[in-house]
Amino acid sequence: MSELREQIRETIEREPVVAFVKGTHEQAYCGNSERAMQALRAVGASFAAVDVLPDPAIRQELSAVSNWPTIPQVFVAGELIGGADIVQELAASGELEAKLDEKLGGEWRNGGAEHTIPLGAPANPFRIAPG
Amino acid sequence: MSTALEAQLQQAFPDARELSVVDRTGGGDHFHVTVVSPRFNDLSLVEQHRLVYDALAAPLDDGTIHELRITTRGET
Q1: Is A128 inside a domain boundary?
Q2: Spatial separation of the C-alpha atoms in residues A47 and A49, rounded to whole Å
Q3: Cys staple from A113: which of A1, A46, A72, A94, with CB 3.0 to 4.6 Å?
Q4: Which domain holds residue A111?
């Protein structure tokens, strides 16, 4: 298994809510990545973003891990929740909040903090402490 | 292009109650597909969309589809 793939797995497991996007939480370079992050914002969720653009291998390895061919990809507590369409649909129906509550308790709100992390980064100060 | 994609989806979901492919931009590479099928019953949205991605794997891989929006529903 490649080191990059291992880092991706570790990031998915570590971050309560993580969105793999084209760009950063401040600047998406793709309408779909922006839609996914807007859906998370709409419910007030804190999330980490990972930019897949710096290295094409990130996207390749991510898709191998998740069995999902497109970007963005949003994970909650280690589980793939969906791409932009699903996350948007779940946010609109109220199911996204229910899913976050179910998976993370109340921790996911955390003031709606957002940050972008490089792959393989150590725990950062914005990280939600485990309950 | 929409017609070709629709044919591929039709083949993958022969029992679809509703199936449409919309070229969102008119450029022939940004599509919105909608599939309503009893096959989706009891599947999560992630599993439903995976089946659509599987059905369109070839045009996704070769870049024919640059962007794909998906709407799926089971039949209740």
Answers
A1: no
A2: 7
A3: A46
A4: 3-116
Measured CA distances, A48 to A6, A64, B45, B49 (Å)? 18, 21, 23, 24
**What's the total number of domains in chain A?**
1
Tokens of A101: 């509550």
Token pair for residue A116? 């972008």
Tokens coding A50: 């990972």
Does residue A129 form part of some domain? no
Predicted TM-score (pTM) of this structure: 0.91
Instruction: Domain count for chain B, please give it.
Output: 1
With bands split at pLDDT 50, 70 and 90, how would you rate the model's confidence at A128?
low
ipTM, interface predicted TM-score of the complex? 0.92
Using an 8 Å CB-CB cutoff, list chain B residues near A86: 45-46, 49
Q: What is the CATH number of the domain that holds B21?
A: 3.30.300.90
Per DSSP bridges, beta strands A47-51 and A114-116 are parallel
Q: B22 touching A, CB under 8 A? A: no
Query: Given an 8 Å threshold on Cβ–Cβ distance, is B46 in contact with A81?
Result: yes
Question: A56 preceded by cis ω (within 30°)?
Answer: no
Residue A11 lies in a domain: yes
CATH number at residue A92: 3.40.30.10
